[in-house]
Amino acid sequence: QVQLVESGGGSVQAGGSLRLSCAVSGYHYSSGYWMAWFRQAPGKEREWVAGIRSDGRIKDSVKDSFIVSQDKAKNSLYLQMNNLQFEDAGVYYCATSRWEVPHADLRRADQYTNWGQGTQVTVSS
User: 20 to 30 A from 46, CA-CA: which of 38, 75, 94, 114?
Assistant: First the structure.
């Protein structure tokens, strides 16, 4: 059974940085599977922020200042967020798929079967 636990959220001033972590257990790192970060702001739908293929060879994010990485030895997924802006605030979730996600569907939440409980990110002036 896959379990995901996020940490590292908090309050930061605009322009600041945060590093989110996701502790992963029970996950099968098959090369075609994907791991991702999503966020959800109040009143908005959950949106994709960044993703990395389980073999670590392909990754992408909504902006260059967000860097996704993984450390299999530590069973962890990370999201380094730099130059945070007000629109980056929300609850951040890590998620994993258990099938090979087509590239065109990477940003769809329904492609991911396991989710953490989320960690809050607040951006202030």
Answer: 75
